[in-house]
């Protein structure tokens, strides 16, 4: 191709109606012309002024394209001489572009096969429980973020940004910000009877990372871990990719209930939610707590205590943490601010025995390279000034009222036929369904009505043999929407049950 006909060749291929920016099309077409030798090495390219005029586009657009081609090695430019095609194409781009010259679409080619995941990757995706919806009636585990004291938080945030401290804008030291660890130690001791020093606290991004860190440091692939059955799907997913051998242990009214056969094969780890079993809501009895602690001491097991929803109990005070009863240093205590403040904060913590503190702090910095120190500083002051405990008191009252509104709506619709468990604590209750009901079908029918609930069977290791029920989160549902939303859900339940009858 002679330089004199380049303008016509380009004009025929530029498509001003396909949504692609003109400069990107021009850049691509010139690349193709050079690589296919349509523009041979040494050819002088028309000036940016002339090419812009002939194509009817801005000169700056052409100049920008020429500059990019120079940087990529396609052309050379010298003041007073002009722009020339380089003697060789860039090494990283080879092959013929003859067929591509006739294309006017710049969309990437579709692949014919799905990329292959690893075995554990496929297992993780197959069992994923994450929802595309993160709020609304009746999404479990989501707090009412509209009631968060944003003005107070903004004031504290502005204070730190007004004169940013360099030490708060870099990577976090092992364990996290010292000030936050200090105020957390005081709060946990007062509120949950956790016995620890600030140095035993490691700041994480939440429960998932805390459990992942503990599993990595305290177990090896193939080791046995006990989990409650049912249990939180997110933690189960962490364990699925850890290489551990997971054994689901049934729960009863007193919490996790290992059989004699289970006790005969001690695990390396056990993961429990003693303050508020997730998802069924029972509180582990003191006798069961003492049994687990003694068993762990005798068999050198580690207990990971997820202190889920311990702040939200309606009508009674929670039992002290399992960690507070531990005298042998076998309990790893984890918690987060996702439910008490707002999920997007992504701040959690793990409390480890003193002998493990340095190793956990080092591993956290090595694996996750944490930051967010400014956010941690704001949170520390938020707690120290009393805003955290004040917010929890207000939300406990609000959530208690919404819980009762939901229970009243259910009683009005179903009377004594309605049965719920786990309703005296936390942010959700479980609506029991008749035996044999496909609770996943009910959840799907509810979703078609814009109501989000979770099927209880999905939290069990063997969903096909699990009891049927629905998890109903009430925390993030405005007061005046609870009754109509429940009636909509009830319509979906009744319709599905009639179809399955």
Automatic annotation (TrEMBL):
<dbReference type="InterPro" id="IPR036390">
    <property type="entry name" value="WH_DNA-bd_sf"/>
</dbReference>
<dbReference type="InterPro" id="IPR051446">
    <property type="entry name" value="HTH_trans_reg/aminotransferase"/>
</dbReference>
<dbReference type="Pfam" id="PF00155">
    <property type="entry name" value="Aminotran_1_2"/>
</dbReference>
<dbReference type="InterPro" id="IPR015424">
    <property type="entry name" value="PyrdxlP-dep_Trfase"/>
</dbReference>
<protein>
    <submittedName>
        <fullName>Transcriptional regulator, GntR family</fullName>
    </submittedName>
</protein>
<feature type="domain" description="HTH gntR-type">
    <location>
        <begin position="20"/>
        <end position="88"/>
    </location>
</feature>
<dbReference type="InterPro" id="IPR004839">
    <property type="entry name" value="Aminotransferase_I/II_large"/>
</dbReference>
<dbReference type="GO" id="GO:0003677">
    <property type="term" value="F:DNA binding"/>
</dbReference>
<dbReference type="Pfam" id="PF00392">
    <property type="entry name" value="GntR"/>
</dbReference>
<keyword id="KW-0805">Transcription regulation</keyword>
<keyword id="KW-0663">Pyridoxal phosphate</keyword>
<comment type="similarity">
    <text>In the C-terminal section; belongs to the class-I pyridoxal-phosphate-dependent aminotransferase family.</text>
</comment>
<dbReference type="GO" id="GO:0003700">
    <property type="term" value="F:DNA-binding transcription factor activity"/>
</dbReference>
<keyword id="KW-0238">DNA-binding</keyword>
<dbReference type="InterPro" id="IPR000524">
    <property type="entry name" value="Tscrpt_reg_HTH_GntR"/>
</dbReference>
<dbReference type="GO" id="GO:0030170">
    <property type="term" value="F:pyridoxal phosphate binding"/>
</dbReference>
<dbReference type="InterPro" id="IPR015421">
    <property type="entry name" value="PyrdxlP-dep_Trfase_major"/>
</dbReference>
<dbReference type="InterPro" id="IPR036388">
    <property type="entry name" value="WH-like_DNA-bd_sf"/>
</dbReference>
<keyword id="KW-0804">Transcription</keyword>
